[in-house]
Amino acid sequence: MFDERPPAATETLLEVNNIEVIYNHVILVLKGVSLHVPKGGITALLGGNGAGKTTTLKAISNLLQSERGEVTKGSILYRGERVQDLDPATLVRRGVIQVMEGRHCFEHLTVEENLLTGAYTRTDGRAAIMDDLEMVYTYFPRLRERRKSQAGYTSGGEQQMVAMGRALMSRPEMILLDEPSMGLAPQLVEQIFEIVRAVNEGEGVTFLLAEQNTNVALRYAHTGYILESGRVVMEGSAQELRENPDVKEFYLGMSDKGRKSFRDVRSYRRRKRWLA
Ligand SMILES: Nc1ncnc2c1ncn2[C@@H]1O[C@H](COP(=O)(O)OP(=O)(O)O)[C@@H](O)[C@H]1O
Ligand SMILES: [Mg+2]
């Protein structure tokens, strides 16, 4: 008669269940990765170089084939449906698009032409596409200024914006963003993440973003996962991760000796406990 159940927990948009990825039939890179990406949130996939972040994103967007990689175990569900046998273009039509690491632009096209290529899967007509071009320019005023410039002659930050803007032109529900901060000056990194937040809040786009820059990612994300050698070693809300002593020590305050393995710390603590 009277429904007193608490409001439903946030809907999971993407679910990765215990996937294994093998390259060239022999190199095992992901050793059982599971993720839950809530609808409407920003989820960070963290970890050092070679941890398996890009491989995870490519497994989701079905871009592994061209790399001779294969999901050999586990499942990937988008809105509850299995998507791992779809081709990338079908997935784009379903609302999932990846912005690749290294922001690949069409160098000989102008900024605006690059953005328009992002609308290639759409069938809703020119007027709607032009409206969205306006929408992209509101989030990226810099791109409006540079609209007639050849993409190859724009800066790294501008190219990252072009790559993100082009993804937005497909009207995605979810963007897989790979290392947006790579090679950019700190101030620009901040700008890019501000735009991610604005698009997330303004358009309701869900983000799964891979980052080595733990510090900045955890300031903008809502939840996060830390990958090491193809395994999730930690997960939680961004706040929990920011406050976790091991994350602080090994991912937020990097020592000059470089980054130690998170798993090393844990086994070290375990030994210490036994000795005590
Ligand atoms: N095409 C490939 N063939 C073989 N091994 C690969 C390939 N791509 C990546 N790897 C290996 O997989 C591991 C994870 O790489 P990657 O997913 O790119 O990590 P991250 O994005 O976290 O830096 C690394 O050891 C890398 O050398
Ligand atoms: Mg990578």
Could you walk me through the main structural features you see in this protein, from its secondary elements to its overall organization?
The protein is an alpha/beta fold. It has 2 domains: about 10-95 and about 175-185 and about 205-275, 3-Layer(aba) Sandwich (Rossmann fold); about 105-170, no CATH class. About 40% of the residues lie in helices and about 25% in strands. A 6-stranded mixed beta sheet has the order 6-7-8-3-9-10, sandwiched between helices. Strand 9 (about 225-230) and strand 10 (about 230-235) form a beta hairpin. Helix 3 packs parallel to helix 6. It starts with 11 loop residues before the first strand and ends with a helix. The model is unreliable at about 270-275 (pLDDT under 50). The site of adenosine-5'-diphosphate (ADP) has 14 residues, from strand 2 and helix 1. Adenosine-5'-diphosphate binds near residues 51, 52 and 53.
Tell me which CATH architecture of the largest domain applies here: 3-Layer(aba) Sandwich
Dominant shape: globular
The tally of beta strands, per DSSP, is: 10
Taken together, the total number of domains comes to 2
In terms of structural class, how would the helical and strand content be classed? alpha/beta
Count of DSSP-assigned helices: 11
Helix content: 25-40%
- Provide mean pLDDT, rounded: 90
What is the beta-strand fraction?
25-35%
CATH topology descriptor of the largest domain: Rossmann fold
Which ranges are low-confidence, i.e. pLDDT below 50, for 5 or more consecutive residues? 270-276
The CATH superfamily of the largest domain is known as: P-loop containing nucleotide triphosphate hydrolases
Radius of gyration: 20 Å
> Separation of termini?
57 Å
Q: Provide the succession of SSEs.
A: EEEHEEHEHHHHEHEHEEHHH
Which cofactor or ligand species appear? adenosine-5'-diphosphate, magnesium ion
